[in-house]
Amino acid sequence: MFKIVSIPGDGIGPEVVASAVQVINKVAAKHGLDISIEEHLFGGASYDVHGEMLTDETLEACKNCDAVLLGAVGGPKWENLPHDKKPEAALLRVRKELQLFANFRPAKVYDALVNASSLKPEILAGTDFMVIRELTGGIYFGQPRGYDDNKGWNTMVYEYHEVERIARLAFDAAMKRKKRLVSIDKANVLECSQFWRNIVHEVHKDFPEVELTDMYVDNAAMQIVRDPKQFDVIVTKNLFGDILSDISGMITGSLGMLPSASIGNTHALYEPIHGSAPDIAGQNKANPIATIASVAMMFEHSFCMKNVADEIYQAIETALAAGLRTADIAQQGDRVVSTTDITTAIVEAL
């Protein structure tokens, strides 16, 4: 039995999570899987009821399940709260409490959307790689940090175990794909990056089948746009991963298409990378594909059922190939449909 905790959150979160739950239920019925889904309030929706963005009950539920499915958090209604009371602070707390140290962001181009990117179709077609970003270390968390009237300072720090565990996870991911890993750093000028590179190469000895390449981060940014098909799995530190995963995501088209997974040793959280989009909330216009693709990642990474993940990706491709588009991915002449319409098409394709 698999236990999923659903935290739809705010804005379009409940709508896209509802679509994803339909897909989960369809897959469970098709394959005879025993899956339970327990829903909890989170973010602004929780604040309106409980006076706090993340209750102890919700946090405990997230700690005692096989996977967490998140919709989106935040919105104008809660913008003026103190920083530590905002929805985003609750999300950071979940990641910290669950010790989610790795963020997986795929850059996959669906054939039907190859013309939706700003890149030429011949450059983009066939692109399918994974960016693995270290999520809990590096310059975002290093001490000392601060600023005064004359200077500002931050510290980029990585400890051995932090690099070793993310490297091992990346090699594992590469073994399940095309066995190619690019480690991105700035070892020519940063001692912290040389430390990173040394450990990645040490871990590589345990994965001799994987082809390992080192690449400087400035060159990587250029190469992702110049020839994205050259990549299979990318691993990099927190700051570089923050930037490169957004570059990788945007070359594929709409944010409404992009899933993600935040993974630790014992817990995992799956979510679309888009925000709560309060301007279209409740209008049945949201694109649920990023959340549905996040479910595909859940089946692959948490449930070790890559065959099911592939079925979900294929169902998305089938719906898109039929010409169905939500407004965010529609081009002139396309058939614009609702959230429920494209969800139904994907479920039927399954």
Automatic annotation (TrEMBL):
Pfam short name (any one): Iso_dh
Subunit structure: Homodimer.
GO biological process assignments: L-leucine biosynthetic process
Organism (species): Prosthecochloris aestuarii
Residues marked Important for catalysis (site): 140, 186
This enzyme's EC code(s): 1.1.1.85
MF terms (GO), sorted A to Z: 3-isopropylmalate dehydrogenase activity; magnesium ion binding; NAD binding
Family, as annotated: Belongs to the isocitrate and isopropylmalate dehydrogenases family. LeuB type 1 subfamily.
Pathway named in the protein's UniProt entry: Amino-acid biosynthesis; L-leucine biosynthesis; L-leucine from 3-methyl-2-oxobutanoate: step 3/4
Group of enzyme by EC: oxidoreductase
Function comment: Catalyzes the oxidation of 3-carboxy-2-hydroxy-4-methylpentanoate (3-isopropylmalate) to 3-carboxy-4-methyl-2-oxopentanoate. The product decarboxylates to 4-methyl-2 oxopentanoate.
HAMAP family membership: LeuB_type1
Note on cofactor: Binds 1 Mg(2+) or Mn(2+) ion per subunit.
Keywords assigned: Amino-acid biosynthesis, Branched-chain amino acid biosynthesis, Cytoplasm, Leucine biosynthesis, Magnesium, Manganese, Metal-binding, NAD, Oxidoreductase
Binding site for Mg(2+): 218, 242, 246
Compartments in which it is found: Cytoplasm
Name of the molecule in the record: 3-isopropylmalate dehydrogenase
Cofactor(s), by name: Mn(2+); Mg(2+)
Ranges of residues in domain Isopropylmalate dehydrogenase-like: 3-346
Sites where the protein binds substrate: 95, 105, 133, 218
Known catalytic reactions: (2R,3S)-3-isopropylmalate + NAD(+) = 4-methyl-2-oxopentanoate + CO2 + NADH
Residues holding NAD(+): 75-88, 275-287
InterPro entries, per the entry: IsoCit/isopropylmalate_DH_CS, IsoPropMal-DH-like_dom, Isopropylmalate_DH
Any one GO cellular component localisation term in the record: cytosol
